[in-house]
Amino acid sequence: MSIKGRSRYQVSGGNPIDKKMMKKFIALFCGIVAGLHFLLALIPIALLFHWNSSNRKIEAALSDPGVYEPVAKTLALYSQSDPSMFPKTLDHAWLPEELDAIGPAWAYLYKDFAHVRLSGGRKGYELILDPKASTSETNVWNLHFVGEGPRDRKLLKTFQMEKARRLTPDELPVRIIDAYDREGSAKPGL
């Protein structure tokens, strides 16, 4: 269906495009489309590697004794104290400042159990009273790191605390006010 002297491929202006140029254009266009699909497929993989790297950093920080020891002692002290002094959910101001460097944290508190969760709520700590090992004078507490799966549970520390050790209502406001003051001084302009 070509007219004598004209190519069947023409641009609207009437200039003929030879077959080799058209094939190169189609190959280039298909290459660009395939390249974009390849890049779009790589983005989730790159995000997965970043997420895994971030998770390993959080787990390493939570496994540091400089972080978990103050958390363990604070939670045990809270658990042994009068529960009416505490809100249902403890925000970061109620928790040791060592957790602030890792990320936002919150905790739930019970008489023989407490747990702390960070950011997405999957990683954190569980503090459990061991009634069999406890005596009439001391409570024995076990602090566990808790990860995302049921197998991601690791005992970090077992320690004792005198049963008589409790926070008084006078001590508690000082601790909370100090925590909010630390937060305010850490943020410029506040």
Taking all Cα atoms into account, the compactness measure Rg is: 31 Å
Distance between the termini: 79 Å
The main β sheet shows up as: 6 strands, antiparallel
Determine the fraction of residues in helical runs and give it as a percent range: 40-55%
> What's the count of strands?
6
> How many structural units, i.e. domains?
2
List the helices and strands and how they pair.
Layout lengths: L18 H44 L2 H16 L8 E2 L14 E5 L3 E6 L5 E6 L8 E9 L6 E10 L8 H16 L4
Antiparallel strand pairs: 1-2, 2-3, 3-4, 4-5, 5-6
Question: What report would you give on this structure?
Answer:
- There is one protein chain.
- The protein has 190 residues and is an alpha+beta fold.
- It has 2 domains: 17-62; 65-186, no CATH class.
- It contains 3 helices and 6 strands.
- A 6-stranded antiparallel beta sheet has the order 1-2-3-4-5-6, covered by helices on one side.
